[in-house]
Amino acid sequence: MCGIAGAFWIDPQHEVSEQVLRRMTDSLAHRGPDDSGIYHRLPHEHGPYGTVPGVGLGHRRLSIIDLSGGHQPLANEDETVWTAFNGEIFNFHSLRARLEGAGHTFRTHCDTEVIVHLFEDEGIDAFSHFNGMFAIAVWDQRHRRIVLGRDRLGQKPLYYCVHGDQLLFGSELKAILQVPGISREIDPGAIDAYLTYQYVPHPRTIFQGIRKLPPGCYLTFDGKNLEVASYWNPDFSREISISLDDAKAELIRLFTDSVKLRLQADVPLGAFLSGGVDSSLVVATMKQLTDQPVKTFSIGFPQKEYDETSYARQVAEHLGTEHHEFQVTPDAIEMLPKLIHHYDEPFADSSAIPTWYVSQMTREHVTVALSGDGGDELFAGYDRYRAVRLAAAVDMFGPIGRFGSRLGMKFLPAGGPQKSKLRRARRFAEAIAMSPGRRYLDWISIFNETRRGELYDDGFVEQLPDTDPYAFLYSAWQRSGKRDALTAASLADLTTYLPCDLNTKVDIASMAHALECRQPFLDYRLAEFAIQLPSKWKWRLGRGKFLLKHAFGGKLPDVIWKRRKMGFGVPLNAWFRGPLKELLHDTLTSEKAISRGYFRQDAVETLLREHDENQFDHSARLWALLVLELWHREWVDS
User: Fold this and answer.
1) So which residues are the catalytic ones?
2) Which domains does the chain have, with CATH numbers?
3) What is the value of pTM for the model shown?
4) How many other C-beta atoms can be found within 10 angstroms of the C-beta atom of residue 312?
5) 299 labelled binding-site residue
6) 171: annotated binding-site residue?
């Protein structure tokens, strides 16, 4: 795993100097502490392929495969193709055999070298041959262009910025911000989306002039023409007809091969083990594929409702792993500045805190850790899908069913704990009259449309674009066509929540500690199979992951299959009434925060008061506002 940065320009006046390129690269040193490299070439008029633009590629390396031979940037034999690459190409052995058979000569044993040789043969089509997690930059001298590509499910991030004939890119925003003159003008629409989703959805970033390359896409730029296009377009509307036994056999085959591919490493390797189904299945399959004890890592907290270590311990004992369990008392005041610095655009998923701790402690023992991310989206594991199924049933009764739900809402409390059954019932009833996609957004939003309207200052509303944040989810929801609502919701999560929230959270927290995290459920072959499975093989009797249990039930203790799903979280509610109360109030009611002109002061004070008096649990909303203000102070005001 690594960090990449770079630049492309034609006009000599737009040169990104080697010194600036090195600053961009060094800002990512935490992602790759083992090695660094720079390729820098000024424009020249008499190259073998005509006028050659200026180009700079920077790389920070975390050595995983071919520890001595994987230096980057790396070129093909005649140096007409150069690459800087972050991630892993898990099928590189088979690609290498094919390329050697076609006459290519390899100088290293690393996966990076297949990129330049395959690009020689296939050009842009090379991306569709890679099975891996990656952000790739290719300098294609023959066509005098820069090419960027990102893996199908957004496991690795890639940011870019275009100024005229100049393009800048990096694994994190902070790399691009090293370039003098880069604007830090805030995008009001990004703030609106952030308060909706708790992250800024691609292709937006918090800054007006910087973009994220969406998952499964590539970008080409020659100084005049910019093209962003998708190379991965599975048909979400197609549902296959398959027997349960055939689905089980195919799932076992694909998942086992995915785990096997992700065990390739020349460094110590282990796995996160939460005690949930997905991480436990990863560990069970690892044990099946190796003769060595599997190293597993769990993190626990003093608050029982946030501690899963007892379940992780049962799985570890059942599988005979070399288990490491860490007990942590989170220090939010000490942690906040680190999170704000590393998550260099506003990111309000508070589970970044436990993810940070488990990554930090796991890195003391191994360099690579496998995780269970993606299982919930692919096999319908979230509790919120119960509401989706129930709402679909209400929809079958048309206006009568919706009227009954709205009538029942009058007898439900408006306050109380956010996750109580009564509060959930009220939120369900409030949204039932909406379209399926719109009400799903209402359920998952931190600030739904009504609350954002109450929060925003009139002047800020005037700055907002005409686009609706719902468009991001709606476009994903629509991809499922006429399939059922459960399928539409879970596959929308696969292309929105998973890459923008979960993968961002894991990438930043793990790479802050130079830990590579691999996610076997996100092998694109497994994803394509699960995408087209009917929901009846995912959801049965009010629970998800039916096919996983049918295929792998005997591998895990029965209690793991029956346990209630537990979020990977922290006690924000208690923190904001205790150790973080003063910081929260002082920050959100400060003159600096008010002067930004985003929010009505009385609306913010109402949120604080209602939370303090235990009328509402506004902890997720207040965390989002706190992170946003502290982010401004770190990345805009300084």
Assistant:
1) 2
2) 3-230 (3.60.20.10), 244-380+500-561 (3.40.50.620), 571-637 (no CATH)
3) 0.93
4) 27
5) yes
6) no
